[in-house]
Amino acid sequence: MLAYLAFEPYGWFIWPCFAVFALGVGGVLAETLIAARRSKRLLAQLEAAKARP
Amino acid sequence: MLRYANPKRFLDLSAALLPWLWLAAAGLTLPGLYQAIFLVPPDYQQGDTVRIMYVHVPSAWMASFIYGFMFVASVVGLVWKHPLADAAAKEAAPIGAMFTAVCLITGALWGKPMWGTYWIWDARLTSMLVLLFLYLGYLGVWAAIEDRAKAARAAAVLCVVGVVNIPIIRFSVEWWDTLHQGPSVVRFEGGKLAPSIDPSMLWPLLIVGLGCTLLFFALLFVRMRTEIRRRRIRALLAAQAGG
Q1: CB atoms within 10 A of CB B238
Q2: Nearest chain A alpha carbon to B51
Q3: Is residue B169 part of a domain?
Q4: Could you tell me if B174 and B187 are in contact, meaning their C-beta atoms sit under 8 angstroms apart?
């Protein structure tokens, strides 16, 4: 299996491509979800403060 | 369509769609990539480097598709001043920039073993690099102008002007003599659109492409929901500051 996945002699070009794709998609996904969670939390705090007399 | 572009309706509709979009995006992209690594046969000329196509080509498709989406949203924003159109274009841009960068990097990594060089200033590669600069310029305009209405208008104008690059990318391999190969997934033959690669290689590519498209819409919906919340946050902060 490992010999197959080495994709000789091109493994050094193939695997970095999949890594770049995973990093790019994963990075945007993480940034998107973190920003969504932060904005939800901040909005909830502000609305709670507004509701207080 | 415009009925659902009302922010309240958009929030309701996107909340209902998002779980299915995430599921379908993961359910297509991950098996597609599995097939690309384990099941697709090596190409008779490119050998195993053909596997790079399964991340490079969908990224290239998404880079152009997302810019086209931003163009439509920008026109709607400029003409009808729709409140969600600017948000849609603005939130699509980082996703498009990411796919463009992935396309350029994976293309360079494929180019080295196949062409003997990571980069050449041919029409296809150069027009893709211009697309990345357009994305970065668009994001730069939003970051540089504080007044959000002015930023939206300036960014939309840049996006509309920059759309001229999309047909250049598409037809660059036909208009000029390029090192990048011509259309090699589907071709017009005898007036019909016909696949030019074997189905065992074509299907995983289409599956990853569709998965990336659904992933884009899932990311976009979450980002637009965040932008709507940010607008509400700004309004609440302004009201607080106003006493």
Answers
A1: 9
A2: A14
A3: yes
A4: no
Task: Say if A45 falls within a structural domain.
Answer: yes
A27 interfacial to chain B (CB closer than 8 Å): yes
Q: 3-class SS at A8?
A: coil
- Residues B111, B52, B23, B206, Cα dihedral to 10°: 90
Interface predicted TM-score (ipTM) of this complex, two decimals? 0.93
Q: How far apart are the first and last CA of chain A?
A: 67
Indicate whether B110 belongs to any domain. Answer: yes
Task: Please report residues of A whose CB lies closer than 8 A to that of B241.
Answer: none
* Rounded Cα distance, B141 and B154, in Å: 7
Tokens, residue B227 = 């932008």
pLDDT of residue A36: 97
Whose CA is closest to B48, among A11, A33, A45? A11
DSSP string covering A15-53:
HHHHHHHHHHHHHHHHHHHHHHHHHHHHHHHHHHHHH--
CB contact under 8 A, A32 and B233: no
CB contact (8 A) between residue B113 and residue A13: yes
pLDDT tens, position by position, B27-57? 999 999 999 999 999 998 889 999 999 999 9
In a domain, B202, yes or no: yes
Q: State the total domains in chain A.
A: 1
Domain presence at residue B147: yes
Angstroms from A2 CA to nearest CA on chain B: 12
Residues of B with Cβ-Cβ distance to A14 under 8 angstroms: 48-49, 51-52
pTM of the model: 0.93
Residue whose C-alpha is closest to residue B55's, from B172, B218, B163, B215: B215
Other C-beta atoms lying within 10 Å of the C-beta of residue B129? 14
